[in-house]
Specification:
There is one protein chain. The protein contains 9 helices and 9 strands. It has a single domain, classed as Alpha-Beta Barrel (TIM Barrel). The protein has 260 residues and is an alpha/beta fold. An 8-stranded parallel barrel has the order 1-2-4-5-6-7-8-9, surrounded by 6 helices. The radius of gyration is 18 Å and the shape is globular. It is 32% helix and 17% strand.
């Protein structure tokens, strides 16, 4: 069995080096009248010179839609679970306080069309059809009109099963692991992170900025893994992210001022 990642073994290649120095818009550049994970939020981020982070959920007909929550109520006012609706049904639902609708991942990719890098967070929980959602994401990427998607893409998750799936079924995809040393401090959290890195074999990491600076993150950066942060919401957290990671994932007051 291979040894678990430590401070001595180094990842092969630099497939995720394009992440270094990026400014990433958390769920797009959203705000009043521009809902998170909407086409308007993605266009606003591109106009601001930012890369994109988005979330994907599985539909009843095994498609990937761009949506954060497992249920619809907070973001649409509709009851029910996302997975109980088809992609067409979800695409007809309006996001609260806007004319925006829930986009499919395929529609979002066509909108962005390689103009800026994208980080796709695959949502998951313990008893969840992770493989079906991973397959839906890969299908959207593979069937992009005209051939392969023309820009940088990273697929990431808190769930190491996502990294395992892409390593086995789509090894060309750059994959990331999300974690929080802030929410899971101590020995148990440290062991969990080491096991998750060993299972997922990520090309990059996405860490909770509230824990920085942190030994685990510093050790993984020293191994050569680029590190993004979540979620930078204040100028103070932005400075911490810039000092101890490679790409802040920001929203609100944490976003770099235009022209700064």
């Amino acid at each position: 069995m291979p040894s678990s990642p430590s401070g001595t073994d180094r990842p092969t290649g630099n497939r995720a080096d394009w992440l270094r120095g990026l400014e990433v818009a958390h769920r797009g550049l959203h705000g009043p009248g521009v809902p998170e994970n909407s086409c308007a939020a993605f266009e606003a981020a591109i106009a601001h010179g930012m890369a994109l982070e988005c979330d994907v959920q599985l539909t009843a007909d095994n498609e990937a839609v761009v949506f954060h929550d497992f249920t619809l109520e907070r973001l649409t006012g509709h009851p029910g679970a996302v997975i109980d609706h088809t992609a067409a049904e979800l695409g007809a639902i309006r996001l609260t306080d806007s004319a925006e609708r829930i986009p499919s991942l395929s529609a979002m990719l066509s909108l962005v069309a390689g103009r800026t890098p994208i980080l796709i967070e695959v949502k998951s929980r313990r008893h969840w059809p992770v493989a079906r959602l991973c397959a839906a994401v890969e299908r959207a990427l593979r069937t992009y009109p005209g051939g392969a998607y023309p820009g940088h893409i990273g697929v990431m998750s808190f769930d190491p099963r996502v990294g395992q799936w892409f390593r086995a079924h789509a090894p060309q995809r750059v994959r990331g692991l999300i974690y929080s040393e802030y929410e899971k401090p101590g020995l148990a959290g440290a062991i969990e992170r080491q096991v998750a890195v060993w299972r997922a074999r990520p090309d990059f990491l996405a860490c909770d900025v509230r824990a920085l600076p942190a030994r685990f993150t510093a050790r993984q950066r020293a191994r050569g893994l680029p590190v993004t942060t979540w979620t930078v919401r204040t100028p103070e957290l932005r400075q911490i992210a810039l000092a101890h990671a490679d790409a802040p994932t920001a929203e609100g007051a944490g976003v770099k001022a235009s022209g700064a």
